[in-house]
Every structure is written in C-alpha cells, then in structure tokens.
Amino acid sequence: MARIMTLTALITLFVDQVIKYYILHVVQLERVGFLEVIPGMFNLIMTWNRGVNFGLFAGDSDATRWILIAIALGICVFVIYWMRRETNAKALFSAGLLLGGALGNVIDRVLYGGVADFLNMTCCGIQNPFSFNVADITIFLGAIGLIFFATDHKKA
Questions:
Q1: Residue of 16, 60, 108, 136 marked catalytic
Q2: Structural domain of residue 114, as residue ranges?
C-alpha cells in the first residue's frame, strides 16, 4: 500500500517541476512578468515566495530559507511516519499529493532561494494579488484528503 503514496509523490513532484521548468525557462515568465490566459479569470503572474503561504514570514535571509526547508522536510518525515500503518488507499494517495508538493517547493527553495509562484485567479473585477503553483494545490488537496480519509489507529 505504501507504493500508492510513493508513486503519487513521485508523479506529483515530477509534474510540479516540469511545469515550473516550463514556466521559468521556456515561457520565461520572470522576464515577461504577466500573461493573461483567460481574460478576467486566469493569469500567469511571476512571484517568488520566500515565506510560507501568501508570503507570510518572508525574509531574504539564508536562515529563513533553510529553516523553511527544514520545517517542510520535517513535515514530510512526520507524514511518512504517520502513514506507515495506513491501509486506506485514499489516505495514502492524499499523503503522496502532500509529500510531492512539499518536496517540489523544497526543491525551489534549494535551487532558487524561494518558491516559484505563477498561477493567479481573479473574478468579478476583483484583482487577486496572490499567486500560487501546482505544488501548493497538491499540498492543499493532500491535507484535506488526510483529514477525511486517514485512519485513526488509536481506535483501530
């Protein structure tokens, strides 16, 4: 069953990194800055997140960068340990989504000093100032999946 988690994490990590590579090195969004994909709804806006969600606790210091890397890796170790007795395939799939996304953002921090965020959703004339990436989506979906599907081994 752990194969589900590992395979999901590897596929998630691969997809995240391929998309980021494409956005950074082929589209060169950092140079372009902004691309309107679906007018009034979906844009590509290049930002570098040096903090956590929505840039909270952002700092340009190497200490902040490595602390956030250590926290992300610590969370990954915790999730792997937590899932060691899990038998629910949906929970293992969710853990894989979370792990792959977290490792994708760790790779960004190691390679670039911050997380490459570029997806931006707007609606109804309200400009959303925040960008995110595929890893952020999978981390969110994985965390929600774990809430709903992880087995409570204390009761089992």
A1: 136
A2: 2-23+47-126+138-149
